[in-house]
């Protein structure tokens, strides 16, 4: 998944010598991944990186077990959709960032996000590599950061 900062400003830090140096807001963005796991016990945050104006993350959502018990309805278990997980992340990080910036209610993340389903281990390995290599590659992309 990829989520971008509004008006793609580079408020989350900068890439220096191929390594991402997080700003205070970038640290909040990174901390938000741990908050997701604490809030959603069925979610595991895999490989991730915060970039100057966006982040990449692999989110693994545990599937609910399907049980058949002779017509007995299984108890409800709270499980959120990917959209709800990202909305929670955006809400929590925006609230914290706005307290630091003293800009209550300011929108910091773009409305949508880019996601895809990872279908096999080869694709998972490739995407993990892409995410981890994102900071060094970004310095070569003159169009990526303003």
Give a quick precis of the structure.
36% of the residues lie in helices and 18% in strands. The protein has helices at residues 24-39, 82-101, 121-132, 134-138, and strands spanning 2-4, 13-16, 19-22, 43-50, 54-61. A hairpin with a 3-residue loop joins strand 4 and strand 5.
Structure notes:
The chain contains four helices and five strands. With 146 residues, the chain is an alpha+beta fold. The strands form two sheets. A three-stranded antiparallel sheet has the order 1-5-4. A two-stranded antiparallel ribbon has the order 2-3. The protein is globular, with a radius of gyration of 17 Å.
Main attributes?
146 residues; alpha+beta; 3-stranded antiparallel sheet; 36% helix; 18% strand
Radius of gyration: 17 Å
Q: Count of helices?
A: 4
Largest sheet: 3 strands, antiparallel
| Number of β-strand runs | 5
Structural category = alpha+beta
The proportion of residues in beta strands is 15-25%
Helix amount, in percent?
25-40%
| Overall pLDDT metric | 86
Low-confidence sequence ranges: none
- Taken from the alpha-carbon principal axes, the silhouette is globular
Largest sheet strand order: 1-5-4
Q: What series of H and E elements makes up the topology?
A: EEEHEEHHH
Span between N and C termini?
22 Å
């Amino acid at each position: 998944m990829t989520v971008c900062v509004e008006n793609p400003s580079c408020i989350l830090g900068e890439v220096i010598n191929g390594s991402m140096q997080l700003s205070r807001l970038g640290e909040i963005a990174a901390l938000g991944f741990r908050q997701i796991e604490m809030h959603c016990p069925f979610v595991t945050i895999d490989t991730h990186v915060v970039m100057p104006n966006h982040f990449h993350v692999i989110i693994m959502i545990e599937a609910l077990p399907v049980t058949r018990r002779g017509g007995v309805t299984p108890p409800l278990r709270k499980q959120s959709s990917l959209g709800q997980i990202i909305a929670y992340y955006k809400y929590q990080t925006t609230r914290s960032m706005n307290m630091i910036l003293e800009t209550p209610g300011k929108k910091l993340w773009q409305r949508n996000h880019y996601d895809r389903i990872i279908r096999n281990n080869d694709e998972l390995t490739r995407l993990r590599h892409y995410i981890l290599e994102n900071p060094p590659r970004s310095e070569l992309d003159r169009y990526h950061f303003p």
